[in-house]
Specification:
The protein has about 425 residues and is α/β, with parallel strands linked by helices. About 40% of the residues lie in helices and about 20% in strands. The strands form three sheets. The chain has an eight-stranded mixed beta sheet, with helices on both faces. The N and C termini lie far apart (about 50 Å). It binds aspartic acid and magnesium ion.
Length: about 425
Amino acid sequence: MRVFKFGGASISSKQSIDNVLHIIESYANDNLVVVISAMGKITNALELLMKAHHEDQIEEIKKQYTEIVKYHLNIAQELFGDSDEHKMNTGYLLKQLDNQLKKEPTENYDYDYDQIVSFGELLSTQLISDYFNYKGLQNQLFDARFLIRTEDTYREARVDWEKTKEKVQQQIGGLFKDSNSKIAVTQGFIGATAEHNTTTLGREGSDYTAAIIAYTMDAKDVTIWKDVPGLLNADPKYFPDAVLLDEIPYREAIELAFYGASVIHPKTIKPLQNKQIPLYVKSFINPSHEGSLIQGNLLQNTIPCYIFKRNQVLLSIIPKDFSFIEEENFSLIFGLFAHFGIRINLMQNSAISFTVCADYKPNRFQALVDELNTEFSVRYNLDMELITIRNYDDKTIDRILNHRKVFFEQKSRSTIQMVVGKTQ
Ligand code: ASP
Ligand code: MG
């Protein structure tokens, strides 16, 4: 069996959904699991809705909810015309979302987030699965909340691999038993706890879902269908001369994804590497093009790769009493970063200071700084950018920096990482 993942951009209109249908039809000889994320930019809209709900902004709730309803009903209308029977499921889900919005927000923002934002995937998969069946592409829709078991770190839930494996094998495995041309459709990004509370795996987490399912089912391969030709050595929005990486090993792909190449969710690759399942990244616009293939361990790539991670904070932490930065300090500092869920991307220590480049999340960051301030003096710069170049040389560095000031730098033989100020 094979696993396909389609993201928001590939299913944002009837035309694009038809395109996905054609792609799937052309692979009809294999059992397929099709993992789908929310349509278009619906997850962003749901985030706004969620925030308005938490802040009790009635007008904003109405506005965002109406947009979301309109968007899905329009697509349903385009897909099914006047066949009301096929629009019922969508209407039912929108009603469920409305019910969710009628509930008082709880104390737990992240929990509420998952209960609301997960509707993007519930709606898209329902619509698409119904549409495929309507067009004669037989498929079965699986609710990912009965497949992907997680613990309860809402918005970034960790997977219970054992339970998930059991469930996926039982349900999807059941469908595929004695067959080689069945299609299972399911949601990316979402899962559920043992108590059956909905969780999410982190933004852009549908890729990860595809990898989880592939891992548990020993899939032949995984394909992530994108609006770019594959994995490129730089973001073509900023680098018109970006080139396609035909084949790269898992490790290189993990590094690229971790430091912000936004093509694949960083957690996707490890499970595939563990089972040596090849990962294709292909264009849904040109499905017959080769795309990129991630597999193996041999590093062949020597093309420089440029990765930019924006919205970073550079933070220096200095013990107030001018004692040295020592192990007890580290354990306290790391404990606080973990506690507030702030990811460190780069770090360095000197005798009396510890410097960190981390993702900037306003509320959590302020809480972290407040805590750190009890033991340390803290200085920081906001609006920083972390630039990673793999396979760098002097020329590539000059090209990227273009006279911008480097605040912080780390180099290994293959990789240079620099924290720089915002571009003017
Ligand atoms: N819909 C979710 C998001 O936009 C998950 C995904 O797209 O992978 O973050
Ligand atoms: Mg998405």
